[in-house]
Amino acid sequence: MTGDEVQLPPIGSALLGAAGVAAIWTAGGLPAIGWIAALAYLTVSTALLLRALHVRHAVRFGWANVVTATRSALVGIITGLVAASFVAPIPVPLLIGLAVPALALDAVDGWVARRTDSITELGARFDMEVDAFLLLVLSAYVAQVLGPWVLAIGMMRYGFVVVGWMLPWLRAQLPPRYWRKVVTAVQGIALTLAASGLFADLSGVLVAVALALLVESFGRDVVWLALRSRGRVRTRSRARPAEVDAS
């Protein structure tokens, strides 16, 4: 791929998301605040991704990132629905119908990256940011029913980043940890179940347990980073790949 061609998949996914928003809006199911929020997410996220590809001089986008970009398009539509839910009722089955594949595809992009031997820092970061924003919008929706404490799930990642601006040692590279992915998946499942209303009596418990697991996971990372900053843990150096790959 040339520099221009590598930009086509992100732009295509943004257009896919915009088409979905337009379809819902045309059907009369999305107030103005909804499509504005959706298009804002799609525009900003695509611009940031294109900038990252340019900075890294990416030579190809990769199928794993195509899957993640598809998830991002779904997140854009979900963002529109959740924003609209603050001013008008929304079709909950549609919200759940979008959230389920957005969550399920989180396992697919990692599998594709491993199968194609195309795991990269950019791909992992792209996946993580899509996860984080999906949890943010789902927690915003569920918080309308269970209370503002649910927003802690969606804000945890962003709070960690903000504190990292003030405490540089929090910005160090964390080692891969499978449990981190499991906890992220649990957040999405718990929030989606709560949003569906199918288990109304248990929703609070499910989300509270998910939040507790998230606090534990972030807490473990903070402790590891604190020990690392004091030289109490050893880190392994990793060789950099000779070719920049965006997959």
Order of helical and strand elements: HHHHHHHH
Strand content: under 5%
Specify the structural class: mainly alpha
Mean pLDDT over all positions: 89
Radius of gyration: 19 Å
Supply the number of helical segments.
Answer: 8
Tell me the major beta sheet: none
For the record, the count of structural domains works out to 1
Globally, the shape reads globular
For the terminal residues, how far apart are their CA atoms?
12 Å
| Helical content (DSSP H or I, runs of 4+) | over 70%
Instruction: List low-pLDDT spans.
Output: 237-247
Transmembrane segments: 7-26, 32-50, 62-88, 124-143, 182-200, 206-227
GO cellular component, one term: membrane
GO molecular function: phosphotransferase activity, for other substituted phosphate groups
Keywords: Membrane, Transferase, Transmembrane, Transmembrane helix
Topology:
Blueprint: H1 8-26, H2 32-55, H3 63-85, H4 92-115, H5 121-146, H6 151-166, H7 178-196, H8 200-229
Keywords: Membrane, Transferase, Transmembrane, Transmembrane helix
Transmembrane segments: 7-26, 32-50, 62-88, 124-143, 182-200, 206-227
GO molecular function: phosphotransferase activity, for other substituted phosphate groups
Descriptive overview:
This is CDP-alcohol phosphatidyltransferase family protein. GO terms for molecular function: phosphotransferase activity, for other substituted phosphate groups. It holds the Pfam family CDP-OH_P_transf. It comes from Agromyces mariniharenae. Belongs to the CDP-alcohol phosphatidyltransferase class-I family. The chain is mainly alpha-helical. The chain has one domain (5-229). It is built from 8 helices and no strands. The chain has helices spanning 8-26, 32-55, 63-85, 92-115, 121-146, 151-166, 178-196, 200-229. Helix 5 packs across helix 6. The protein is globular. The chain starts with 7 loop residues before the first helix and ends in an 18-residue tail after the last helix. Mean pLDDT is 89; it is low at 237-247.
